[in-house]
Design a protein that fits this description.
The protein is built from twelve helices and ten strands. By secondary structure, it is an alpha/beta fold. The protein has a single domain, classed as TIM Barrel. The chain has an eight-stranded parallel beta barrel, surrounded by six helices. Strands 2-3 form a two-stranded antiparallel ribbon. It comes from Gemmatimonas aurantiaca (strain DSM 14586 / JCM 11422 / NBRC 100505 / T-27).
Length: about 280
């Protein structure tokens, strides 16, 4: 498996991420350290934040649920929607039937901010997820203080001892972690750490290469009592059929909706895909 030693396959050895993900993870550590001394102040704000809108519950139902993303740029495409108004875009997504809104808060490669997260969370009535490269508990408190209901945790970015710590911390705060994986070894780690919402990313964040067969191959192995989310590489309704047929409960779509001329109509078309009876175990 990528990122693990081949010498001891029985007990895979985690190594620090490389490539783009490695750089973004290192930058995330630096940002976390820069605000670590504000932890108590963030806790005070978080305790007074708006009530959490249940994320897990929002991702189940007769149709494939759509998590629509507010996204101005990405490492793979550069600037894609520089003038995007986060609140206006999120409100259009909700009118189109989005079950949840993902807000990028990474500032250097995605053009996001915590201010975007706070503004969107205050404007919509669906769950809002902080999408970033989270590596420290203080970033979870930032998310909750800004009004988020959920936060992304990328298994490849987190040492084995850190993943369960962040999952537990998120739940103590009131956040639902969306735990992102790319292979079966990472799925085992996510399940062992107690993840209940599991995302499978078609994009390898180290190389930025997309393989749309990844999520359909991994999702059938996610237990049926967990929520399965397919991520990346989906543009049109037809692109949702493979993850849907594999048993996905939801999809996370970013560039396709952020660059759409009519984001409300784009989300509505994606949200109209009916789920199949899942074969997941």
């Amino acid at each position: 498996m990528q990122g693990f030693s081949s010498k001891t396959p029985e007990t895979p050895v985690w190594t620090e991420p490389e490539g783009t993900l490695g750089q973004l993870t290192r930058e995330a550590h630096a940002r976390a350290m820069a605000v670590a001394d504000r932890l108590e102040a963030l806790k005070a704000v978080a305790r007074d934040a708006r009530p959490v809108v249940p994320f897990h519950q929002a991702l189940t139902g007769p149709h494939l649920r759509v998590i629509a993303e507010v996204k101005r740029a990405s490492p793979s495409k550069g600037t894609i929607a520089p003038g995007l108004d986060a609140v206006g875009q999120a409100e259009a997504y909700v009118r189109g039937g989005a079950a949840a809104i993902s807000v990028l808060t990474e500032p250097t490669r995605f053009g996001g901010s915590l201010e975007d997260l706070q503004a969107v969370a205050a404007a919509v009535q669906v769950p809002v997820i902080r999408k970033d490269f989270l590596v420290h508990p203080v970033q979870l408190w930032e998310a909750r203080a800004a009004g988020a209901s959920a936060a992304l945790l990328i298994v490849r970015s987190l040492a084995p001892s850190l993943l369960p710590l962040l999952i537990d911390t998120a739940r103590e705060i009131g956040l639902e972690p969306l735990v992102e994986i790319r292979d079966l070894v990472e799925l085992e780690r996510a399940l062992a750490a107690g993840a209940s919402v599991i995302g499978v990313n078609n994009r390898n964040l180290e190389s930025l290469v997309i393989d749309t067969a990844t999520a359909p191959a991994i999702i059938p192995h996610i237990p049926s009592d967990r929520v399965a989310v397919a991520e990346s590489g989906m543009q049109q309704p037809d692109d949702l059929h493979a993850p849907r047929d594999a048993g996905a409960d939801a999809v996370l779509v970013g560039s396709a909706v952020s660059t759409a001329t009519d984001p409300e109509a784009q989300v509505r078309a994606l949200a109209a895909i009916a789920r199949h009876a899942t074969a997941r175990r």
